[in-house]
Amino acid sequence: MSNNANKTLFISDLHLDTDTPGILQSLLAVLHDRAEGADALYILGDLFEAWVGDDDQSDIADAVATALMSLSQAGTAVYLMHGNRDFLLGEDFAARCGATLLADPTVIECYGRRVALSHGDSLCTRDTAYMTFRKQMRDPAWQQAFLDRPLLERHMVAQQIRQKSQDANSHKASDIMDVTHQEVIKLMESLQVDILIHGHTHRPGIHTIRLHDAINGSDEAVRIVLGSWDQKAWVLEFSPEGYALTPMAHPQPAAPTKPAKAAKA
Length: 265
Fold this sequence. Notes:
By secondary structure, the protein is an alpha/beta fold. It has helices at 21-35, 59-73, 91-97, 128-137, 140-147, 151-169, 181-191; strands spanning 8-11, 40-44, 77-81, 99-102, 106-110, 113-118, 195-198, 205-215, 218-225, 232-239, 242-249.
């Protein structure tokens, strides 16, 4: 039996792009070394830096789909959740990955524990400008109208949206872009869970919080924040014995090969 049996992995915020070959290699390594033989892998949003539709072909998407399908066919359940970057990721791509798309939030049973999963952006309610933008982007009518546009036009619009978002975020206070504590408590109590796993904020950590109302006889709860893969690959491993959030260094890019010197006559 694989030594990964009775483990479930959670990752998010890889932001895969043509400019991040090292992150893709880290993902492939995690899938082979840590996810193979595990019970399940959950990717909680922003797998890609941008996603303009399942009809957009790319080498990165092909590599990811092939690797996830291989993992799925080997017996590890694969789940995908939308992020704020790849909210247009659809059923066609999920099928190519052998994966199941999840709603945000979703509650799962994980080794006897009820766990809530979310990308996390819906909890950042103090960022009112973003919440207005998010509501528009998640509107089915807006999404369909966008997907009906030519592919090149979609890429241009996506680039404009990214640039506008980066410019706006550069002028926002850091705490505004973090989750709102009361929204976290509200969500956990409404779902009756004492563990919440999310990404989005790029602030990896495990936080103990106090709920207003006790769940399972205790008001103590845990919020686990997955890390962005911009500097390191963050993986949460959950097992019957507990959980651990650990970083892994990305592979170093290969040094350029120097041309051989011509032999002297």
